Automatic annotation (TrEMBL):
It is found in: Cytoplasm. It catalyses: adenosine(1518)/adenosine(1519) in 16S rRNA + 4 S-adenosyl-L-methionine = N(6)-dimethyladenosine(1518)/N(6)-dimethyladenosine(1519) in 16S rRNA + 4 S-adenosyl-L-homocysteine + 4 H(+). This is Ribosomal RNA small subunit methyltransferase A. It comes from Rhodanobacter glycinis. The keyword Iron-sulfur does not apply. S-adenosyl-L-methionine binds at residues 12, 14, 39, 60, 85, 108. GO terms for molecular function: 16S rRNA (adenine(1518)-N(6)/adenine(1519)-N(6))-dimethyltransferase activity; RNA binding.
Length: 262
């Protein structure tokens, strides 16, 4: 029996097989992978992933869905369910506990908390091999946006400084039950290697990026005046009269690293 989607959990269950198959094919799980699915719902993606990998860990907050999921998975493979809010799951500890170097994470994320989930995963990027997520298409567009784009912003910068962002394909509302009011898209995130990642202080970088985009119409000299004066911005090889949406992620790293004691 199909479960009744709960609006409070932002549930939209994927049901159209061709899109499920495309997602599984994109992930291409192997028997030696440690796959973690966020929000398995009715198991539309869970069961084919489980069949391919032989084992899978799922994180599900809705207790009503867990018994049916366990029952359907019993004949397919080894399913472990963590009943928890994903924002409270320590992915690094999960990898260590199971003795695996890195996790592969997938999921049809609740759209209303997709950004917090993305940032939470990025905090554990060193323990993650890759991520494949279904998200609102607008969010995927923002994640992959380049400088100068109208949708380029804080999410674009922070994610691109941690991961390679690869939009894969779009999914129409009719592929879900109930259909959402927006188009969806599947995206692949591959965490950068330690050699590829920036060496700025994370808190300082976050503060600079947040302030820069807080009021997009302001020049950097005005937007960052509580953090950096015009001379400091110039020392980062950035024009104080520029606006945040014109800067590359690397520009923000230089701003975060500039010496303010001079």
């Amino acid at each position: 029996m199909n479960a009744r989607p709960k609006k409070s959990f932002g549930q939209h269950f994927l049901h159209e097989r061709r899109y499920i198959e495309r997602i599984v094919s994109s992930i291409s799980p192997r028997a030696d992978d440690f796959v973690v699915e966020i929000g398995p719902g009715e198991g539309a993606l869970t069961l084919p992933l489980l069949a391919a990998a032989g084992k899978l860990t799922a994180i599900e907050l809705d207790t009503d869905l867990i018994p049916g999921l366990q029952e359907r998975a019993a004949a397919v493979g080894e399913l472990a369910i963590i009943h928890a809010d994903v924002l409270k799951v320590d992915f690094t500890a999960l990898a260590h506990r199971h003795g695996v170097p890195r996790l592969r994470i997938a999921g049809n994320l609740p759209y209303y908390i997709s950004s917090p989930i993305l940032f939470h995963c990025v905090e554990h990027a060193a323990a993650i091999q890759d991520m494949h997520f279904m998200l609102q298409k607008e969010v995927v567009d923002r994640m992959a946006a380049e400088p100068g784009s109208k949708v380029y912003g804080r999410l674009s910068v922070m994610l691109q400084l941690a991961c390679r962002v690869e939009p894969l394909f779009n999914v129409p509302p009719g592929a879900f039950r109930p259909p959402p009011k927006v188009d969806s898209a599947v995206v692949r995130l591959i965490p950068l290697t330690p050699e590829q990642r920036h060496d700025a202080d994370p808190e300082r970088l976050y503060a600079v990026v947040r302030a820069a985009f807080a009021q997009r119409r302001k020049t950097l000299g005005n937007a960052l005046r509580q953090l950096l004066d015009a001379d400091a911005i110039r020392r980062a090889d950035v024009d104080p009269k520029a606006r945040a949406e014109t800067l590359s992620p690397a520009d923000f790293v230089r701003l975060a690293k500039v010496d303010t004691s001079i």
